[in-house]
């Protein structure tokens, strides 16, 4: 009886430890590492996220020969204007993350650092193999910067996904109607 109770207690402790485990930003997305997962069939992207304290831990895989990007808006009133954008690309042979802001409805976003902001991503790991990006990052839910859109868990956002055929982030993705950019309405972190 005591042995069964001990085994049951140990099992519950292990389940509890797994449930509260924080994702590890190492460029590898493990099964069960994140609390939430969403597969976007049109883009073949898979999103994973966990809100831990004041931080968003997020990961995604996305097929792309060139750069890949994600972003979010509180509402889509003028296309993608006002969006908080992350672009991952390769520079000097290594993956880099670009914290960007979409000022206008069309065209490429601008770096937060060029608009008086700073890079809000506190941790980052990525790889680009066989034309597929695997990306993990951590970002505060609220940064206090005008170039970032604060994240409120449970609030609806318009989530954006895009990719290009080249690594130059100054080169645009294909038009939305041609499969280079996608929107997920009513996305909740």
Architecture overview:
With 189 residues, the chain is mainly β. The protein has one domain (24-188): Immunoglobulin-like. The chain is built from 1 helix and 11 strands. It has one helix at 2-19; strands at 36-40, 45-52, 55-63, 68-73, 83-91, 94-102, 110-111, 123-129, 132-140, 156-163, 181-188. The chain has a 6-stranded antiparallel beta sheet with strand order 7-6-5-4-10-11, with no helix packed on it. The radius of gyration is 18 Å and the shape is globular.
- At the first level of CATH, what is the class? Mainly Beta
User: Which quaternary structure do these chains form?
Assistant: single chain
Whole-number tally of structural domains = 1
How many helices? The count is: 1
What's the shape? globular
Rg over C-alpha atoms, rounded to the nearest angstrom: 18 Å
Q: Beta fraction of the residues? A: 35-45%
The fold-level CATH name is Immunoglobulin-like
| CATH architecture tag | Sandwich
Order of helices and strands: HEEEEEEEEEEE
Which consecutive residue ranges, at least 5 long each, have pLDDT under 50? 4-18
Strand order of the largest sheet: 7-6-5-4-10-11
């Amino acid at each position: 009886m005591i042995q069964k109770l001990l085994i049951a207690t140990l099992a519950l402790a292990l389940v509890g430890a797994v449930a509260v485990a924080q994702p590890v930003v190492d460029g590898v997305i493990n099964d069960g590492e994140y609390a939430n997962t969403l597969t976007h069939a049109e883009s073949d992207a898979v999103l994973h996220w966990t809100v831990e304290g004041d931080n968003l831990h997020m990961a995604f895989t996305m097929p792309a020969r060139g750069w890949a990007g994600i972003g979010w808006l509180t509402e889509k009133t003028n296309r993608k204007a006002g969006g908080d954008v992350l672009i991952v690309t390769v520079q000097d042979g290594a993956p880099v993350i670009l914290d960007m802001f979409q000022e206008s409805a069309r065209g490429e976003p601008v770096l937060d650092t060029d608009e008086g902001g700073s890079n809000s991503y506190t941790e980052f790991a990525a790889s680009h193999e066989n034309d597929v990006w695997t990306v993990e990052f951590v970002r505060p839910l609220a940064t206090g910067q005008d170039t970032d859109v604060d994240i409120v868990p449970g609030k609806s956002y318009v989530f954006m996904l895009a990719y290009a055929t080249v690594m130059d982030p100054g080169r645009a993705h294909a038009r939305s109607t041609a499969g280079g950019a996608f929107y997920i309405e009513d996305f909740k972190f």
